[in-house]
Design a protein that fits this description.
The chain is an alpha/beta fold. It is 37% helix and 19% strand. Keywords: DNA recombination, DNA-binding, Transposition.
Length: 249
């Protein structure tokens, strides 16, 4: 039994000052013999302090995490180059919340780094073979600045390449969407006079509406129609793994 200091003091006064014996103190206080002897023999009354328990403080970023998570989750359906970087998330939060968003970039960048690992590691990794057969191709978009009739454009180029022969064919566009992708591929098919049997793509939202486990891809209806019309096999890299193509862009 643990007693308060006032009770301990009463026991000591009854014994040392008033001369009561243990049996008398038992009757007067109601404490048992073991408890009374314990405190009569005690000489060290220093307080034993419990280790301080730090309360969990919320992060200044907490009110904005739901928005950040939504943006990063949506990136699963985007081209790798179109995904949110920490800098872009920081910029968009300032634009969306104004002065209400007062977190440091360092705090945000650390959270984005952790969250991206969590989002893009939720499925088993399957690696595409880097040995390519003749007739197999891959498609990439890249940035190309150009002038047309004296006007400068920050444009995009579609590159359909054949890793086995290390050759590629390019189409130039002012944007990067499904229409540009399909028109560019049609132009190259017509130039080649044939169609690759197998083509590797990134997971752009214009082609892939949902990414599941074990390589499952739910294709958009329009891209599925395009693929079936030209009768090529469409293969998709793991999320954030465009390097699996193995061919220099």
């Amino acid at each position: 039994m643990t007693l308060a200091m006032t009770d301990i003091n009463d026991i000591k006064e009854l014994y040392f000052k008033k001369g009561l014996n243990v049996a008398e103190i038992m009757r007067k206080t109601g404490y048992d013999r073991k408890t009374i002897n314990k405190y009569l023999d005690m000489t060290d009354f220093n307080l034993v302090l419990e280790p301080a328990v730090r309360s969990k403080r919320g992060s200044k970023l907490d009110p904005f995490k739901e928005t950040i998570d939504e943006w990063l989750e949506a990136d699963k359906k985007s081209w790798r180059k179109q995904r949110h970087t920490a800098k872009l998330v920081h910029k968009n939060l300032i634009k969306k919340y104004g002065s209400k968003y007062d977190c440091s970039y360092r705090l945000l960048a650390e959270y984005v780094k952790i969250k991206k690992k969590e989002i893009f590691s939720d499925e088993p990794k399957f690696f595409l073979p880097l040995k390519h057969l003749p007739g197999e191709a891959q498609v990439d978009f890249g940035r190309t600045d150009f002038r047309e009739n004296g006007t400068f454009y920050e444009g995009r180029h579609l590159n359909l390449s054949f890793p086995q022969s290390n050759t590629g064919y390019v189409q130039l566009f002012k944007g990067e969407n499904l229409q540009c992708l399909e028109q560019g591929m049609i132009n190259i098919f017509n130039y080649l006079g044939g169609i690759p049997t197998r083509i590797v793509f990134d997971n752009a939202s214009s082609m892939v509406s949902d990414i599941g486990k074990n390589k499952y891809r739910k294709l958009t209806e329009h891209f599925m129609m395009f693929k079936n019309h030209f009768r090529f096999e469409a293969v998709f890299c793991n999320p954030a793994s465009g390097h699996e193509k193995g061919y220099g862009k």
